[in-house]
Amino acid sequence: MLTQAPRGTRDVLPTESYRWQYIEGKMRAAAALAGYREVRTPVFEHTELFARGVGDTTDIVQKEMYTFQDKGNRSITLKPEGTAGAARCFLESNLYADALPCKMYYLNAPIFRYEAPQNGRLREHHQFGLECFGAPEATADAELILLAFRLLSELGIQNLSVNINSIGCPNCRPKYHGMLKDYLADRVEHLCEDCKNRFERNPLRVLDCKKPGCQAQVKDAPSMLDVLCDDCKAHFEQLQACLDAAGVPYRINSRIVRGLDYYTKTVFELITTTKDGNLTVCGGGRYDHLVEQLGGPDLPAVGFGMGLERVLMLLDAEGIQIPEPAHYEVFVTYMGDHRIQAFHLVESLRNQGIRADMDHCGRSLKAQFKYANKTGAPISATIGDEEAENGTVKLKNMATREECTVPVEEAGARILEMRKDEE
Q: How many domains does the chain have?
């Protein structure tokens, strides 16, 4: 059916877009406070970018990408996540040659995953993401965690907890892979088919499987934290010290690995408790070798992603009402053939920065007032025969019903006074 949106997508209606704009404004302010500037990358990239960056053993690359051949027979993929595209942009634009760190954010960026739609995660959803390139210290990790925690708390989301882990680096991870494979060797037959393949190619991915049978098999698996090299251990301790100093409650969860292969050292999730169980509202971590993997210099980086739909869903669950701005400040009504005068008044008010509108449907004056009430406009401005003849306009406060008649050229100033008096 051509008039039905594809499964896993939804429209944002004019009556609800203010809710998106509200949280987007809060997100932009939070990013700016920490020195992050906006980047906008294409909605599609070359498929190889995600195969090399995200990892060909991940569920995203193996199962969830929207990939197609374009007319030039190139393999193109709609973005399944934001970091790889930001790293490609950072590299292609030679931003690494500027003063570092380079802090960038993207907002309302569409993300595409072919998976069963779920609460707050559709096949097309939108993310707020922050990426910091060129900062090796754990203070950068802590800064991002605090930014996300503060933002979500200020929006009103309750029961937030921060989970952190370290998944090591190329120096210490091979030892852990060996330990994990030894542990799983006698349990492989009880793993799902995907995890049987992961066992050989990337055993760390087994820890990320959400299937109950696989979760049961890894319940007593060894922890990466026990085999961290000195550098990774010092980095993780510094992160904890930063979070302790900031007074942010957190817990160490050695089962967090995230679903992307580019992560190193820090990984983290912000989780909230709902009536349906725990829900991850933000996740991220450090990816110190991604830029190098894509052909650039060896530069550390850290970032996170936060789903806008999921944030809005949580606000609804908490019963948090986002203030709806007035659609119009004034609605102009007119009698008979005075629509040109009404049109001129509307444009004059708009030129003064006043949100104004008029009837464009040929309604009677009574019907115009009825419609004005529906718009929620706090003031009406009426041009009748007498007003048209005298060059005046009748202003009415729709709440108090108080009226006054002023010269049409003074209408804007008087409306602004009336709005100020209400505040």
A: 2
Pairing of strands 37-38, 44-46: unpaired
Longest Cα separation, the chain: 94
What pLDDT, in 10s, does the model give residues 207-220? 878 888 888 888 88
CA angle 272, 275, 279 (to 5 degrees): 30
Residue 31's identity, in one-letter code, is: A
End-of-domain residue from the set 317, 339, 365: 317
Model confidence over 337-370: pLDDT tens digits? 999 999 999 999 999 999 999 999 999 999 999 9
The C-alpha torsion from 365 through 370 and 371 to 377, rounded to 10°, is 100
Residue 348 and residue 306 in one domain: no
Instruction: State the Cα–Cα distance between residues 294 and 84, nearest whole angstrom.
Output: 9
**Buried/exposed 9-27: b ≥16 CB within 10 Å, e otherwise:** eeeeeeeeeebbebbeebb
Kindly report the number of other CB atoms within 10 A of residue 174's CB atom. Answer: 11
- Count the residues in the chain: 423
Q: Is residue 293 included in any domain, yes or no?
A: yes
Residue 186 is classified by DSSP as: G
Residue 194: helix, strand or coil by DSSP? helix
Q: Provide the sign of the torsion angle of the four alpha carbons 94, 96, 97, 98, taken in this order.
A: positive
Asked whether the bond before 170 is cis by omega within 30 degrees of 0, the reply is no
pTM above 0.70, yes or no: yes
Q: Provide the domain limits for residue 346.
A: 330-422
